[in-house]
Q: What sequence folds into this?
């Protein structure tokens, strides 16, 4: 309970790392892991620190002092106890391979996030949700009820106090407005190695093109479909013998592990938006 | 010297494998490795066999008999002594990482092909060619001399009796006519994980898009640029710290190993064209 | 329901492939996938064929004829309908990551095997078993009751008509007698890249040695601990920052996917014992 | 020419990172990349910084000040201009696949090290050395002349002012004395995934054991054969069809890329000894 995660981003400049590290040291805090990166392209500096506080650590004082530093450096930052895991609302349609993997890691305490609820436009996910004793909300979507359904989603995010949303093979496209509202806190899994095979049926596309590797990409959702900042990707080799169906089976394993990896990285505060790219301190 | 490679393709039908295997068995030949595949999509059957012949193997008689079988089955086929390696003409521009890898494997006798000559629109490759005691031909290309240069290339292919052409980072686009002439016997390396990042400067495109893996693709050249049947692909993980230049460095290693793998597979007769895809019996 | 899997092994000799392929072709069967391999080392030949039977396929006649061929060739063989999945009994101790993965694939119909029961020397697995509506048997083991417990296991294998046993992180060493009884039909997952780090606490061993990759191995159980024929292996990169605990977490993912892969390959009849090695037609 | 690499190691304690970062910031230096790690196991802290100096950077003053800091923190450290590459002496026996890869990267300026000479107990390497216009020294070794040969090696290291030695498939075991002299500055490539298959003929051992992945390990040489701290490892999948010879061919590619990676990491100062393990800031 004495572990904290500090993350900060700022315009790059000489001495930022020294400022942050110095502040932490003067507070008598013991750094467990620290990672930083200055991007010469975007002229942004990013830092992620996990530290351990001694007895009698005064968080309010620490924060007040850091605020002064942050102002000087035009830094955006946040601090949280490691144990206070961010709250995630999971959305899913019929395919539950990603959901299964998220729930398994959640049960073991390894996901990094607290799952608040499972929301679906189908009833299929209820089975898994109940087995894991998690709230399940059926929110059907038709062309006519899409905006209504999104309002219900907004309400659920509020009610469950969810910090971010995970689209774990949720097959409805979110409206531009909702995409903007959830910027940087909505993670999707796309079942191809983006930017290859955007759009529908990527395994059929991959089979038709005869690629020798298939993949999956976890990315932040933006209004621009399949163009959001990529958090994690992985691939597996395939060959001529595989049908699109067999490819999709192999692909489901890749999707599950890539999405879980992205969710954990995000939940631990290790992902920073850096223009249309990400910085991931894994 | 008693090892042979037989390859055949035909419309798929019951009993083809039995026909081929039976013919080889009746000839008293010892199969070292055999691979086959029937594609239900394209309704094509492919078979690749390496066998060892006993003393007094009569190749002419074997071929005559197989011709009859091939006619019955509408089969296209070829037979060659394993030791009679196909002859490859290598084309390169300035970047010599693929060339270096091909020449190294060639020197060790592991490439599967006999390199006949190195052709380049720059003088840079001469250094390596001379060190390996291989003919080097400088064939400069300008917008006005492109067709002339291609005629010179045709002449070199003929004179060197080359069976196929390897574009080992050759940065000129071949004319549609030449692409068609060389169909199925001209291999290119593209420095991205196709179909991502077609066209120029793929590492810059990859860096800009913030992908977490970069790759390379070896494919047969077609008139449709970067759309030819893929033979081999591979990737390596990258992260936010890498500049486009560092990505390109890592990419060069991927390119070299992917191209060499494709060249060896082609040279050993293990690659079949199957519509816009390939069958690769590795 | 008209799909069959035929597997056979025999002393290698000219014409075996032709004999088998010819027999299948004369029976008018349509080959979906066929793989074979002759090992010059052990002088053994292995073949695996999936075929589709036409209406009115007479299995008894097919088997009688194949028996004659098998006798001539000293072949051991088996035939089964693809839909008649082998029955697997799963054993587990406390760590349920492999169990979770097996149950998930089982539920989706992708495991290739029918799970008959879950047996454990701890009560922890009951939670998952019940959620998947599968029988759970608690069979505690102490030094004094080990043989008794193994008798109970034998009885459970019989009663559930299980074809093979999966040790999905079962932490008790089976007696030599039981190992011999289950030869070739008991699969274990070892949490290291064998033959590295045999024995206990392999992740601690790996951390101490400072390896840069950790792995897992699925193998058939033999009386010789951690020395059985290997079916599948995989690895993931690690670095200096990982504690043994974090390594174990990463390792659990590798273990789960390696064991599931081995179980599916075995269940589909794709694995052959070949001395102290295996042939795996994936 | 204004880029520098600073590396330091010290007993771990609160504020070290702040001290170092603060010192660099106060000197007005622009950090390009910085990595650090505190090992709670060994209670050691490691830091690696690449920085850019402004015009008029006074190295002597910087070093004097850093010395004071280092004394306070019991730090061992070093500073060098990035352009002043460490000098490497390469030793090789007959197999030249690693040598070829090192020379290729050296020629392109990507190795990170300056190759001073190639030393071999066979004449085979002379061909490559000459083509790259590098000094070649033939130092034959017999049981009786081993110590003499090592004296000649010591002399060559001195004369060429080499900073470290690379055993690029050098098949002679160094004496305990020489191992100790070269501690932390002699890198060997072992052709297995250590600690599997120590000793001779690892590919034959791997084939016999039937592993499904083969690998290679680059490590610092110690008197304890094949037990030195590991710098880099990699693997490739293999299957039942591969003979030990084919495995060795595949293995040579792994060896070459693993050794080059380790040499570059060492040359760039990114590798720290940490007991019997290493910290590698890649």
A:
């Amino acid at each position: 309970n004495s572990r904290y995660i500090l993350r900060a981003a700022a315009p790059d400049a000489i001495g930022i790392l020294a400022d942050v590290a110095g502040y932490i040291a003067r507070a008598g805090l013991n750094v467990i892991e620290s990672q930083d990166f200055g991007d010469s392209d975007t002229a942004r500096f990013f830092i992620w620190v996990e530290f351990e506080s001694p007895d009698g650590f005064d968080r309010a004082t620490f924060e007040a002092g850091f605020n002064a530093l942050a102002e000087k450096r035009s830094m955006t930052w946040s601090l949280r106890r490691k144990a206070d895991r961010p709250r995630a609302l999971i959305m899913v349609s019929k395919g539950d391979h990603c959901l299964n993997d998220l729930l398994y890691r959640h049960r073991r305490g390894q996901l990094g996030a607290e799952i608040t609820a499972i929301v679906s436009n189908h009833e299929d996910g209820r089975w898994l949700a109940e087995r894991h004793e998690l709230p399940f909300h059926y929110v059907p979507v038709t062309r006519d009820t899409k905006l209504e359904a999104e309002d219900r989603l907004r309400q659920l995010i509020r009610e469950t106090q969810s910090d971010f949303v995970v689209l774990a093979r949720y097959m409805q496209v979110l409206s531009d407005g909702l995409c903007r509202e959830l910027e940087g806190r909505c993670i999707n899994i796309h079942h191809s190695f983006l930017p290859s095979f955007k759009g529908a049926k990527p395994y059929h596309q991959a089979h038709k093109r005869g690629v020798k590797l298939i993949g999956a990409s976890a990315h932040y959702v933006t209004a621009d479909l399949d163009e959001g900042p990529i958090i994690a990707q992985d691939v597996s080799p395939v060959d001529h013998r595989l049908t699109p169906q067999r490819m999709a089976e192999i692909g489901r394993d890749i999707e599950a592990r890539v999405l879980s990896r992205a969710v954990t990285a995000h939940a631990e505060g290790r992902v920073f938006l850096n223009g249309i790219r990400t910085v991931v301190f894994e």
The mean pLDDT of chain C is 95. The first helix of chain C runs from residue 16 to 26.
